Amino acid sequence: MNDASYKKLCIANILNGVTEGLSKYSRPTRVALIFAASPDDPVSIFDPQGLLRGHESKLEDIFFANGDQWRLRIKETILSQPRNHLIPENDLELSGLISYGGSASDFFYQMWFTEHHPDMCSVYPTERWLEQSSSLLVHDYNTRNAPINSSDYVLKNYSLQAVADHIVDVWNKFLEIDCVMQIPPILNNILNISKTREEGAWARGVLFFTDPRRISSLSFLTKIQKHERPMVSNVKHIRKLLVAVERSDRKLVSDGKTIIGITDSMVPESAIVAEFNGDYGFLRMGNEKIASFFDGSFHSTTREAKLVELEELLLDSKIETEASTLLFRVVSQLVHKAGHARHGCTLVIDLNTS
Length: 354
Known about the structure:
The chain has helices at about 5-25, 55-65, 70-80, 125-140, 150-155, 160-175, 185-195, 235-240, 310-315, 320-340, and strands at about 30-35, 45, 85-90, 95-105, 110-115, 205-210, 220-225, 250-255, 260-265, 270-275, 280-285, 290-295, 295-300. The chain is an alpha+beta fold and about 350 residues long. The protein folds into 3 domains: about 5-155, 2-Layer Sandwich (Beta-Lactamase), CATH 3.30.450; about 185-300; about 305-354. The chain has an 8-stranded mixed β-sheet, with helices on one face. Strands 2-1-5-4-3 form a 5-stranded antiparallel β-sheet. A hairpin with a 2-residue loop joins strand 11 and strand 12 (about 290-295).
């Protein structure tokens, strides 16, 4: 295989891998790539599914209207950084898209794009997915002896690690101390607990994981003695303990390895929270949703209808803003209640003012 064919295959395999992985994590998803491998290369667009259609004018303004200013800026940035270091690039802010890009001495410029679905808990795990795509492309593009399908496989199955990467980024940004908890094993245990039934019933209740050094700030209803604390990896035992916090304000507390006890205190902002709601659940950091989980894996969906079309119709209608906002809120609550109760919902809304 010649060098040009190998490099094209690298790009195609990585794009196929991230497309398939994100399609399982969210819903059927398109992915596109804009790149220039060397400083003097023309800008290339790899967009097999037409994701960037409709954004041509803005892309032309960015890459062509101002000549080579963007190239000069990136060259200066690369010179000021260590060799082979992937430098994050600014989001191009294309509406309806999530993007992540970078520049490096070994791969001049790349920007990845994917769809921003309206029912996503958070865009950040998806951004970490695209960040990993960027890193793998730089590596594979410049390493002729790399297994050609290895990056494809990694990106197809990256959901757990993408969520873990986001949590680590948040901790690094906001915590004053390095956290000693290992994130991937915690996420694996959450998924295993969610798949474990107790007398035929799915798990319900809240389990959160907080840094061992912050345990002393919590008020416990009951605290398990150190020598009797069950390991979180003992999912059958943890599933039984969740019965004690079902349908209440009580929560199980873990230091990442064992269950410490039960509390009714507020969840710390930096804690990893698993909220089990039967055959599905949500992963949060404090009060911010990161992802949902069901069927043994993480997903981006909020599992709630976003009613985007209704919102657009109300904005275009002649109804006063205050009235349309109230109407949208009432309809949303009715639809979400129907969804939680697992039955259908049909509403007829007459927008005529007469």
